[in-house]
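re: ur question from the group chat, yeah i did fold both. here u go
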Amino acid sequence: MEYTVSQLAQMSGVSGRTLRYYDQIGLLKPARINSSGYRIYGQKEVDLLQQILFYRELEVSLEDITEMIHQPDFDPTNALKNHYNKLIEKRARLDKIISTVEKTIETRQGGIAMSDKEKFEGFKEKMIDENEKKYGKEIREKYGDETVDASIAKLMGISEADYQAMTKLGDEIITLLEKAYKTGDPASEEAQELAAKHKDWLMYSWSSYSKEAHLGLAEMYVADERFTEYYDQHVKGGTEFLRDAIVIYTKKNKA
């Protein structure tokens, strides 16, 4: 069958405006334009829209979706299998968070006892999954699957107290970055304290410390805009400043 924009919008739940935008950015082009000037979509476009919606459900950006689905070796069947596996993982995480909420309610009502570790398991998995989706490819290419998987295992195994301490330290790093940046000197006392705290924060998930790995990660922060955005959203230019502070820190300290 063939569909106009309004027909496809009604069937898929995607607005006509969104479909026209997808056409504009080259994500989903219609099969043809009819004599009246209407966009017409065929079976191929319907199936492709389904793929796009699967990717959006997994929170993949439109830019990344466009790049993936227009690759010459893009395989829709393999993509569907990957969607399936990712959605199962997502459902498992949501089920765990729902279970955590249910247990917390029962605990507060005096029904069951809940360990401190159980209170945070779902949230740790969510944090790990978000980092994997956003940075996983680059991190795994740089450090290897074995190193990354070991880091994830360590993070999943940390205690509730360490999890809270890690979260608190992450907030302290942002606050200290703002203070250190104002000095304008990555060798300043504040900047070196910042680099040291960044190392301490890493050690909640790293099995061992390496100056080379610390430097490599700092360089990645600057080289990849997704990493840069995390620190620069708090302090414009803060990512480069942190990198420079880490460079000085690793030169001054033996380990």
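okk and heres the other one u asked abt
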Amino acid sequence: MKSINIPKNNRPGRRTALTYLITAMVFTSCATASCTAASHDGWKPLFDGKTLNGWKSVGGKAPYTVEDGAIVGTMTAGTPNSFLITEQEYGDFILELDVKLEGETTNSGIQTRSHLDKEANNGQGRVYGRQVEIDPTERSWTGGIYDEARRGWLYPLDLNEGAKRAYKKGEFNHIRIEAIGNETKTWVNDIPVAYVIDTIDATGFIGLQVHGINDEKLAGKKVYFKNVRIQTDNLKPRDFPLGIYTVNLVPNALSAYEKQNEYTLLFNGNTPEGWVGAYKDAFPEKGWEIKDGTITVLPSDGGESTNGGDIVTIDQYGAFDLSFEFKLTEGGNSGVKYFVTLSENNTGSAIGLEYQILDDEQHPDAKMGRDGNRTLASLYDLITAQKTSRTRRKIGEWNKGRVVVQPDNTVTHYLNGEKVLQYKRGSDAYKKLVSESKYKKWNDFGLAETGHILLQDHGDRVSFRNIKIKRL
């Protein structure tokens, strides 16, 4: 440090001189942008702009360097996903940084509260944990939340389509991530994007990804990270506007934000309150089990409503946003029906529009109907769900279904956050589909103004939880 000469006749007392000296030291050592950032509203730099001190490279072999005040990762053929991770782990934090990605056919990401399996990838290690996506492709899911090397997509941007326009290709994009308690929220260029409430990973490292590439043309493309800063104390969350869908993985619970958005639980996790048997005045005495926060159809003979029978909500709904989690057993078949009127007095399962729940690989119904319109997440016997194998979870794992019926009768099915089909009740196209289906014998099928929500007993063991609804 440069010495400071104080004129003799202006020298303060001993204590004041010490204060002056400390102030001078702080001023001198803070003559950099990084230190200035650290002293402003609790922000601390995670990157000093010159070196990779405090970071280490794991996973793949893509190189990370420092260029013009930015961390630069270079895409490299023949290596798996590469990560530059913090040596320190973090719990609650607010993280901000600027990211630019070259090319439009790859992606990158920012790991939060993540971990390293040191033995994976032949000893190179594999990073796993929640990742905030950087996605310049036509899919446009930047700011969405992916669970790297573990559960897959938690918050695809089909759940917040308006936010797909936030990312600017070929430019630096400002990313804000709040990880406070069990909530993770994201912003891209100050536009709110994703909101996930999770049950795992209270702490972990932060990481910057260079994605593995299969296209040799991408070799040498770069991803840039700069202005990387973090707050860890006295955190003040930014307001999230109402109306953005929340992925809440806490079973049978509503967050304060969901309550503000007027969601209600259809299943409280403990009792059949709000449900009765179809064509009955009470909940079935057999065939259904409520245990460990789930409501489960017990297996019988694989037939429709031959044991406990279907169950329906006591209340009826018109326009709504319905979410539910379901878990299939091998070869399982069930369904979630809506606009169920119970006016048909038919035998077997009650009649209604059906979100199909099925083991596509093992159940024969997947090969019946037309063009796959009886497969998982399809509008049963009417419209085939457009999904990939990635969209589905394995048998025995929880899947998340969602049905949104807008006031204009536009209906959308989602599977694990991805939009898999959309149609409009009452349209000419809809009526044509009905006329070619098993439902053609019922007049005005699926066109009631309101109806019950139904969980189907198809004789196979299928479990449900986290059933919630919002009237639109």
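fwiw on the second one: The chain has three domains: 1-31, 44-231, 251-471. The radius of gyration is 27 Å. idk if thats what u expected
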